[in-house]
Amino acid sequence: MPEKRKKMRIIRTAAPLFFVIISAFLVASFYHNVFHVHLRHLSPSSLSPSKNQNPNLAIREDLIRGPDPSPLRAPPDSILFHDWEVLVVLPENPFPSSASALGHTCLFQDGAASPALPAGVLPRGARATFKCRMPFSVRRLRPFFTPALTRTPEILRATPAFVGNSPEMLRWSSLAYESISTEDDVIVFAKGVNGRQGVNVPPSALRCIFGNGVTTAVTSSVQEVFRCGKPDRPIPGDEVKITLEIRTESVDRAHPSVALYAPRQRTLAAEAEPALICACTMMYNSGKFLREWVMYHATIGVERFVLYDNGSDDDMADVVEKLLEAGYHVTTILWPWPKTQEAGFSHCAVSYRDTCKWMAFVDVDEFIFSPSWTNASQPSKHMLESFLPKSPSSSSSPSPSIGQIALKCFEFGPSNRQSHPKEGVTQGYTCRRRIEQRHKSIVLLDAIDSSLVNVVHHFKLKDGYRTLRLSREVAAVNHYKYQAWLEFKKKFRRRVSAYVVDWRNPTNLASKDRTPGLGNNPIEPVGWAGKFCEVNDSRLRDVNRQWFGLESPTGYKLAWEDG
């Protein structure tokens, strides 16, 4: 009996080791067979790397090369956004046209793949970007590596060793993502440094790092905007990475970054004749609203439009092209960074300081309107100008000068619509809430505080300037916020909101960024089509019918309708 127990102990001890040996043998056999099958498809030259070449590099040629034989400057960066969306940022744009960027695949570390869709070219560094979804099988792995961007996924799928050459994926929650240079300093935009509204890391605890380690002091730290001095000595290269160093008593930590700094680039250039009034907005898949918004506001006095494209994949580019052909002054800036509306507006304010005098910060579902315009048979380009100060603003005057015009917002409801009104939002939505909510602004760009801090479309002003708040009888903003459910539910995915990161997450339920009575599920509430209807208000609808109504072979239509 003792001998039998002794044998059982030996078996129990040896069993785990035996299992490990068998598992290793099976894994080795699997990879041998996989490589044997797929390597025969590779050319002999790719199987014979040079003496100093990484043997995996030939397998990854498609990842690090563009459409021509020359390699890219460096491996791509990749950023994991919320909802498992991955943005791949190439170090340059190797594609001569958007069509040549089609047909790519994101190949991930476990061999799983997903389509890579061209997402535009970043203005800084002319870097091509692609969007792809992280497959379910990859989401349980750690760490996440940058996927290969390839046209030949079948070859790479059999060679998981390529991951050894890929950098780890960056996390959107902690990243320096953009920069812009002024005549006097450099502005860095970074997420994950100042984590809460009104709680900012002091500038003394931060430094800016340029490329090869040159550092300068940070002079301002608010929200996601950080201002720092320019380097006092030359930095080699046309463009280098720029980031923030967070300094603590125990360790100095460099913030992850995809932002670039161009030592020899003068970012801001004054135009010979700055526009009196411009409009800046951030938009995502809003092409169907754009013609109506631009044509209306251009008619009442907006001279130039700046569109920050928040990663759209609709027909917005085609709509912009048609507007340009029609003579409208529209500029599009790729801004793929989600949940960064305040930072985007700060970027816009400093970028166009010498191009525009006043800037209206309104969304594409918001229309500035004055009740007095109901008596005008035709629009006038001086209508918006009438709200501005009559004399030039100056911070040297004895009393504060007007640096910002604030307009209250009326929130319109679905108005019993079941789908997007083809004739336009001002025509299809005519029922609103009684009490106005929040406000939007037209801002004198020279009056904005150097911190660039802004909240809900209004800015902090320099000393010597004040905000003029217009009564709703003078002017207001018609905000077509609660639209037909098929349109409104799209906001759950890419809602541009500072205080509700993800509507599906039951946090900060009292925020005004949430919809009353909707909760945190993108499920149509009972009676949605009739909600938020307290006042019938068809004034702007009627004005636009008079101003923009056209006779056509098929009948009556509005000027912005296609066909």
In words, what does this structure look like?
The protein is an alpha+beta fold and 563 residues long. The protein has three domains: 44-171, no CATH class; 175-261, Immunoglobulin-like, CATH 2.60.40; 275-558, Spore Coat Polysaccharide Biosynthesis Protein SpsA, Chain A, CATH 3.90.550. The longest helix has 38 residues, at 2-39. The chain is globular and about 65 Å long. 37% of the residues are buried.
From the coordinates shown, what is the CATH architecture of the largest domain?
A: Alpha-Beta Complex
Rg calculated over all Cα atoms:
28 Å
Low-confidence stretches: 17-69, 495-501
How far apart lie the N and C ends? 95 Å
Q: Based on the structure, what is the oligomeric state of the protein chains? A: single chain
CATH class category name of the largest domain:
Alpha Beta
Mean pLDDT: 82
In the CATH scheme, what's the topology name of the largest domain? Answer: Spore Coat Polysaccharide Biosynthesis Protein SpsA, Chain A
Number of E-type strands: 30
Total DSSP helices: 11
Task: Pick out its properties.
563 residues; alpha+beta; Immunoglobulin-like; Spore Coat Polysaccharide Biosynthesis Protein SpsA, Chain A; 3 domains; nine-stranded mixed β-sheet; eight-stranded antiparallel β-sheet
